[in-house]
Specification:
Largest sheet: 10 strands, antiparallel
Number of domains: 1
CATH architecture: Roll
CATH class: Mainly Beta
Strand content: 25-35%
Strand order of the largest sheet: 5-4-3-2-6-1-7-8-12-13
Number of helices: 2
Helix content: under 10%
Structural class: mainly beta
CATH topology: Hypothetical protein YwqG fold
Order of helices and strands: EEEEEEHHEEEEEEE
Distance between the termini: 26 Å
Length: 243
């Protein structure tokens, strides 16, 4: 199956953002203050994890200009259940272009912790060789563990859109049949070019990639994004697992 890896650059290494761009972390573009998600547990404003834009090949949101936003609460790490889909401590939703303003969203009054901002300057298309007939096995633990090691090892483990999830724990946490996996977020950012900003950057072991810490998904965690297509806009679902 085809999947897409983001080519990231830290925002301090780029010109100021002046239009809608796909990114990880930072403040969202175009989200109106009244739309900003609030944690139902602590009452704090949530922090942006990712903002992606409709693309018929890598992220079908059903309409040109639609935007997917993913948030979680960062005020009290470990206290609000950010790992649990539908808990109210995270948010995953789609906005139509006419629901977006033109500019960066102002910082909420309670100043939530902001994740490092990295903008996506390109997407790298890959193919893991997993066929459509094999997809269902990745959503049933017994079938998944009966797959050959070589096939399980094909699943990309970092941030991506498309293909199948790299489960840290059990696939049983996936939402129901009408939900479709569309991508995952790593707890670290990987860069293919050495960032000019060196604070917090380190070399990834055994490779020539550079890495910095990203969102708090526990120990080596991965966040999972699902969509459910319905009348009107798709619905979103987010949760994460850790080792």
């Amino acid at each position: 199956m085809r999947y897409f890896i983001p080519n990231l650059k830290l925002s301090p290494d780029l010109p100021p953002q002046e239009k809608l761009e796909e990114k990880l972390g930072g403040l969202p573009w175009g989200l109106k203050p009244e739309q900003y998600p609030i944690c139902s547990h602590c009452g704090g404003s949530q922090s942006l994890l990712a903002q992606f834009v409709h693309n018929p090949e890598r992220l079908d949101l059903g309409k040109l200009g639609r935007t997917l936003l993913v948030f979680q609460c960062n005020h009290n790490p470990g206290e609000c259940p950010t790992w649990e889909g539908g808990s109210g401590a995270n948010a995953c939703f789609v906005l139509d272009p006419d629901e977006l303003s033109d500019g960066l969203t102002p910082m909420p009054a309670d100043s939530p912790p902001i994740e490092p901002e990295a903008r996506i300057v390109d997407w790298l298309a890959q193919d893991d060789g997993i066929s459509l007939d094999q997809v269902s096995a990745f959503y049933a633990d017994e079938q998944r563990w009966n797959l050959p090691d070589e096939m399980r090892d094909r699943v990309y483990t970092e941030t991506k859109l498309g293909s199948v999830p790299e489960w840290v724990q059990s696939s049983s946490e996936a939402p129901g049949e009408r939900w479709i996996f569309i991508g995952q977020l790593s707890s670290s950012y990987k860069f293919f070019q050495k960032p000019a900003t060196q604070n917090g950057i380190y070399i990834y072991p055994s490779s020539q990639h550079w890495v910095c810490d990203g969102p708090n998904f526990g120990d080596a965690g991965i966040g999972y994004i699902f969509l459910r297509h319905q009348s009107g806009k798709p619905g979103g679902w987010f949760f994460w697992q850790c080792g």
